[in-house]
Amino acid sequence: MFPWQQTQWSQMTQLLKTERLPHAILLYGNQGLGKADFAASLANAVLCQSPTSDHQACGLCKSCQLLAASTHPDLHYLKPSAPATSRSKNPVLSIRIDDIRTLCEKLNQTSQYGGFRVAILNHAEQLTLQAANSLLKTLEEPGKNVLILLVTAHTHRLPVTIRSRCQLLRFTVPDEMQSLRWLKDNQSGYSENQLTEKQLQQSLKFAFASPLSALNYLQKTEHQEILSAAMTASVSNKNSLDYAAKLTNYPKVKTLEGMMIWASDLAKLQSCGFDTAITNEQCRIELQKLAKKANQQRLYRFVDQLNFNLLHSTIAVNEQLLWENLLLSWDNLYY
Ligand SMILES: [Zn+2]
User: Fold this and answer.
1) Which of 111, 117, 138, 242 is the most buried (most CB within 10 A)?
2) Tell me: the pLDDT tens digits for 214-260?
3) Domain ranges (residues) in the chain
4) Do residues 258 and 265 make contact, with C-beta atoms less than 8 angstroms apart?
């Protein structure tokens, strides 16, 4: 459990203590806040046979041993997967109706260890409509001692029928001080050198203030370097399209979000002056050069293009074409 989840944890353990834990909980909030880890900890606490006085799993009992080995028969974990027949490099990932039917059957059986039966659905927004409908009945009449935990960073993509049958548990980004303290304590193993406070702050900005995403960002500087090279190609006499193939090696949404940061920094420099604060401080000089030449109307069209792709990010596309297209639009801002 992470330090910024204390409130949510005491809320849940209070309900557990008084046996008022709801049968379905929707854990939601930005990416990179550790919601899935929280769900796993809650499942462990519920399934542990001798929890501690503050309702943490003991880590020693038979249940805890099975949980540590990921073989507890009363814990069912679902996440989006590719269809078995798919051969695509970037297949559409989803939680399908067959997965849900199998899950519901298991939840209807009696518990193997006499306690709760728990299901965790990670990235619940990837439930197909049929799968979501098939889950409704179990959400309505789950049977005794069933706990269903749905985890998502995109609540609005879940059908209202699902949302309304769950108790909502919201996770918010911690304040910067707490995040920086946590990043300082946890950066070793991710970066060879001790990073400066400024670098950590920078990573938090890129991660929209989510500490785990910031840590992830520190791990994946290579991706950021390629994106920076692609976005500054026009001011360094290189061809941005040369980077399109390389970008297909990284998560699509991360690249789209990265491009969005470049676009919003450019808009800020153009509208608020060249000294205004921006997210991508380390590329300020290149961004200033770009801001001098960029056509604002085309910039807004570029942002629309990014938004469209972010909204439809679960649809599989030819990623090389997508990056070529976007990089061309980006380069065309300057003509
Ligand atoms: Zn235990």
Assistant:
1) 117
2) 988 887 777 888 999 999 998 888 899 999 999 998 889 989 999 99
3) 3-171, 220-334
4) no
The partner residues of 212 in beta bridges, in order of sequence, read none
Compute, in angstroms, the gap from residue 63 CA to the centroid of ligand 1: 6
Crossing angle of helices 211-219 and 221-231, rounded to 10° = 80
Distance 10 CA to ligand 1 centre (A): 19
Unique residue bearing structure tokens 């949980």: 67
pTM recorded for the entire structure? 0.77
Q: In the numeric block, which tokens belong to residue 83?
A: 């269809």
Phi, psi of 279 (to 5 degrees): -80, -45
Question: Could you tell me the CA-to-CA distances from 198 to 188, 220, 279, 284 in Å, in that order?
Answer: 16, 17, 12, 15
CB 301 within 8 A of CB 329: yes
Q: How far is Cα 306 from Cα 259, in angstroms, rounded to an integer?
A: 8
CA angle (103, 108, 112) in 5-degree steps = 95
Average pLDDT of span 186-213: 80
CATH class of 3-171: alpha beta
Kind of pairing, strands 167-171 and 24-29?
parallel
CA of 38 to the centre of ligand 1 (A): 16
Structure tokens at 85: 């027949």
Q: C-alpha 160: how far from its chain's center?
A: 21
Q: How far apart are CA 138 and CA 302, in angstroms?
A: 43
Task: Classify residue 120 by its DSSP letter.
Answer: E
| Residues in the 5 Å CB sphere of ion ligand 1 | 48, 57-58, 61, 64
Helix (H, G, I), strand (E, B) or coil at 23: coil
| Structure token pair of residue 42 | 């809650």
Integer angstrom CA distances of residue 332 from 173, 245, 326: 36, 19, 10
When the candidates are 1.20.272, 2.60.40, 2.60.120, 1.10.150, the CATH number that belongs to 220-334 is 1.20.272
Dihedral, 221, 226, 231, 236 alpha carbons, nearest 10: 110
